[in-house]
Design a protein that fits this description.
This protein is an alpha/beta fold. Helices cover 26% and strands 28% of the residues. A 6-stranded mixed β-sheet has the order 1-2-3-4-5-6. It has a 6-stranded mixed β-sheet with strand order 7-8-9-10-11-12. 41% of the residues are buried.
């Protein structure tokens, strides 16, 4: 049995999710975006779960800012992302901190991705679950969605708010193609856990388009 816990990242109010397996006590962390990951670490320690993977839906810092602090605390964790995301991470974050952080000289980037989804052929067998990675470039070129059973962790690709395509590292045409891909492959009753805002059924996303 899987448990999904949502954490709201601090500085930029994005979502992080912890997926825990009750039997093995293993867990996966999706999009840790708080610099020191204090809430995540407290949750992990209090619930006595063991983090095995950090999975990044894309390279933007509001979804990756907590990676370094988690690696410092749990050095055995493996970081998973798309190949494009991996290549973009060293240069993806600085624009955010010019807007959101008080120190203009502050620098941060994720310098470690252990496994790309392409190396996994877009599937990960974890605790008896087939985790499927769906490449969805558009919001950013390194974006993907993560399907776990009837749950879709969509990053900034599928949200109920108006879609935002980053002009520096995204593409409107690619975004439209990615949405069509999802429309053709995701069932209406799949529960979406987006990068911002509360969860909803995929059917509601389609109705808003």
């Amino acid at each position: 049995m899987l448990t999904i816990k949502r954490h709201i990242n601090q500085l930029m109010s994005s979502n992080c999710y912890v997926i825990s397996d009750a039997q093995s006590r293993a867990c996966i962390i999706i999009d840790p975006g708080s610099e020191k990951s204090e809430d995540l670490i407290l949750y992990i320690e209090q619930n006595k779960v063991s983090p095995e993977y950090i999975i990044l839906t894309h390279e933007h810092s509001d979804h990756t800012w907590g990676v370094i602090s988690l690696l410092d605390k749990y050095p055995e964790i493996k970081v998973i992302a798309t190949q494009v995301c991996k290549e973009a991470l060293p240069n993806a974050s600085q624009a955010y901190f010019r807007f959101y952080y008080s120190d203009p000289e502050y620098a941060y980037y994720v310098n470690r991705v252990d496994i790309t989804v392409e190396e996994l052929d877009c599937h990960l067998d974890w605790c008896g679950e087939d985790i499927e990675f769906v490449l969805t470039p558009g919001h950013s070129n390194g974006s993907m969605c993560i399907k776990v059973g009837d749950n879709l962790f969509s990053g900034d690709t599928v949200m109920l708010t108006k879609p935002y395509v980053n002009k520096r590292d995204g593409s409107v045409d690619l975004y439209k193609n990615s949405v069509e891909l999802l429309k053709n492959s995701i069932a209406d009753n799949v529960l979406v856990y987006p990068g911002h805002g509360g969860r909803f059924y995929f059917k509601k996303f389609i109705q808003n388009r």
